Amino acid sequence: MSIINDAVDVVIVGLGWTGSIMSIELANAGLKVRALESGPERTNAEYIYPKPADQLSYSIRQKVFARASHAALTVRHDRSQTALPTRRWGAFKPGDGVGGAGVHWTAVLIRPTPIDLKLKTFVDQAYKPGQLQDDLQIQDFPVSYDELEPHFDFFEKVCGASGAAGNLRGKIQEGGDPFEGPRSNPYPLPPLQDTLNNTMFASVAKKMGYHPFPNPSAAASGPWTNPYGVQIAPCNYCGFCSDYFCLNYSKASPQTTILDAVKRMPNFSYRTNAHVIRVDMHDDRKTAKGVTYIDEQEQEVFQPASIVILASFQFNNVRFMLQSGIGKPYDPVTGEGVVGRNYAFLSNGNATLFFKDKNFNPFVAAGPTGQMINDFSPGTFDAAPYGFIGGAKLHSSQAGGAPIGMALPGGTPKWGAGWKKGIKDWYGHSMKVSITTTCMSYRDNYLDLDPTYKDPYGQPLLRMTFDWKQNELKLQQFLRERVLEIVKELGPDSHTENFLKPDSHWDTRSYVSTHNVGGAVMGDTPKDSAINRYMQSWDAHNVFVPGGNAFPQNFQANPTDMIGALTYYSVKAITEKYIRQPGPLVAI
Amino acid sequence: MGISSHTSRRAFLMGSVFALPAAVIGARYFDAAQAARLAAPAIEKYQPAFFNSQEWRFVLAACDRLIPPDDVGPGALEANIPVFIDQELHGSYGKADDWYMRGPFNPEASPLMGFQLPYSPQEIYRRGIAAVGAYARQTYQKPFEDLDDKTRDDVLTKLEHNQIDFAVFGEPVLKASAFFGFLLTNTQEGYLSDPMYGGNKGMEAWKMIGFPGARASFLEWIGQHNVKYPLGPVSLLGERA
Predict the structure, then answer these.
(1) Handedness of CA B125, B127, B129, B131 (dihedral sign)
(2) Widest CA span of chain A, in angstroms?
(3) Alpha carbon of A119 to those of A139, A389, A398, A533, A553: distances in Å?
(4) B124 FRET partner, CA 20 to 30 A, in A124, A330, A534, B147?
(5) Gap between the Cα atoms of A205 and A376, Å rounded
(6) CB contact under 8 A, A247 and B189
(7) What is the ipTM of this complex?
(8) Rounded to two decimals, what is the model's pTM?
(9) Chain A residues close to B221, C-beta within 8 Å
(10) Tell me: the pLDDT tens digits for A370-408?
């Protein structure tokens, strides 16, 4: 017999970025809102200086991440293999607790380009039939850049985004990204200050005819008061950003930008350590009646609600839909079904450049510290002759300098006296030139429920079937050459490189990024998408699923700005249309 | 590095009792970092929380070669790395509390699939040390810790390259290279993490490489390019060096 909570208008599953945005906007609209967060409470007060300045605990032992013991999934390269659990995090590491991955992110807040959002249309125009591999499942986003622009603009104000505009209302601006879509406003704050690697990279990139610009940052370059009245402090370049809780109240997170405001509202409440196990449907299966969760005392609790928002990480949103029977599961053999379809990841690569006579002071950094170019994104260069679709942001970033795992020149012994001499001689004398790439979606890269492995609540783990395809491997080879040209211009004493080889399989061990996308994608029809342009389930109109799960494929920009903008786009439709007249917001 | 610390390491490994004479300490001027160093447990007197005495001797002897003492910077024993490893194994890391450890297990899976052993770090060390001990006794008729520097290096190199078949020494699942991976990773973690966790005694490793520890405030340094940062490290507990 389960406990039954008081009914609410809206239950929000997960209190990270999307859950926090939904919470404040729906509470502001007068609804009774309750958020259920499966992880622990995390407040700014718990993470005061110097606590987060601790590489072992935060970055290595992953203090503010989800625990694989509770949040693992299973992975395999293709359908012939038996998937195995991610027993420890490797290629990605999701967050949990209040703030979600918004606590530990690197805080690069960059918009996708207009072409990124209409990639299928672009491919159909720019490529001849047969130029690309035939199992691609690229789709347009059902929303355009122009439709989302006001929401990018607002989310960037919420975050105190710091950067240099490249396109202001159609006018190209010196020092910004000339390939970005038009902005209605400049960034709220000027760019972060540059480190030595930034200036070296930018100067060489410029000389080579590229268009470098400062990494768009959600670590504030100055004091900022956001539209919710929350104050953000100027970043002090503490060097503990990506993987860490911000000790300076400077990195935009749900805590520093939204939660302090929404927590004061009487119609908002939240529970921590409330682990949702399913969405409960009405008998006709057309709408949800609430969600069931396991509370801290391991009791089953039913939370009745008129609207269910699945605002957890991408994996979990897909898993909730599969567990709850919302939408038809994807079948890679027949190509039918939509939930689990179009899972995509991303690849990265880099060259590390060693300079005996340069002090980079790598510990002086914000997470987003860096300069990048967007000269190799879809539509900014012609990739058709190379036989791939895609691109990358190509950047030199200095996200932090904590020493465990530092880069060492090729040939340095792995241990012993030579290793010790290596770390003494080379700590602080290297910089990177890196790529963060697009990743297309394919017929047989997908998600479903694992038949064998269960979580501590007895629920099946999500199963990921994913491997690199020729398209992405060709892209890596192309970008490797571009990076090495830049390396040559920079002229280091030596360098090492780390790119995918033409025959690489996905290595689940080495960290890439936690930009996992797709699996419950947004689209124009229920045939090829699980949710509509408002993040509303095609199958259950009172279930909304905002998040990276909505991306039909992955673009080269970091996903958070897009996720924030889509969530604002969705919540506007909920408050302006849906609550007045509940029902499908897009007619089928 | 002073002669005395090398001597103390050797003395300990030979199984004799060693303590820095109180008069030597008292006679020296010491700053906060030296005070912190002295506050850290002397490795010779440390009572392991996880390892038994035989395992502890192995860990000392292995760490001593993974980061040997010399004039470049502190060796693993001077930096109290075995204390760090013992503390980590005693805690939630050692028990794999945060890892997904439900079966079925497939330790034969492709390395690309990541960690798939049915063992926690505690078990990995326990089994790995036993297997290396058996190998050393069979090959050299001595325990690992009694081997000379060069021979210990040879054994560690064989472990690294998976050239010792643990199955022959009673351990069919754990591979030598996997055990070595944990030992090396944890040794280097201890060398470079905050002294609060037991290693990096006196922040000597941080001083050696020029990492300022938990200072975490560099607004006045972000604009100063290619200038060596002049200040020494501070620790999470506020020690300076």
Answers:
(1) negative
(2) 72
(3) 7, 9, 31, 16, 9
(4) B147
(5) 12
(6) no
(7) 0.96
(8) 0.95
(9) 237, 361, 364
(10) 999 999 999 999 999 999 999 999 999 999 999 999 999
